[in-house]
Amino acid sequence: MQRNLKIIFSSLIIFSVASFTVFTHLKASGQVTESPYTNQLSSPVVGLSTQEVDDLLNGRGAGYARTAELNSYPGPDHVLALKGQLDLSAEQIQRIETVFQEMNTKAKSIGQGIVESEQVLSASFASGIITPTELRMQTESLAELYGELRATHLEAHLKITPMLSPEQITVYNTLRGYTSNEAPNEHHHRN
Prior knowledge:
Elements: H1 2-28, H2 50-57, H3 66-69, H4 76-81, H5 83-86, H6 90-127, H7 132-160, H8 166-175
Helix pairs in contact: 2-6, 6-7
């Protein structure tokens, strides 16, 4: 019995070494390419990176408001981080903090819903019994949640922009690396 276990164990070691050697050779020759998704296998939600899950649960923008940011509509979190360089008044800080807190609370709630829905979608695929109809329903529901999350972040940019002077927006754009020395777009409305 012990002799059989030694033979089995030895065979497993030889197989493992041989498999590793073949894989290493194939990878080095370009015949095997590792998926960029392998790091997502250990994520709390298979199909999302750990960073994406963390961003969703913590209300972070994660690029959802990029279109506002790149069109001279500053983001509340970044504005608050740069409050000294932007020479924000106490009233501006208070108003922007309020917008940020409202946005963050709503984004966290939506993000939690997205994570839960992504877990359901992943489990549906893992079960092997997902149907095209179920897939369509789940992805449409997720699309609605992602759209709501994006709108939440974009609305915060839209709300705080009128709270800033054109000069503050210009400085913000410079500090953020959008180094256009032109005046901000004239479509900004001041309160």
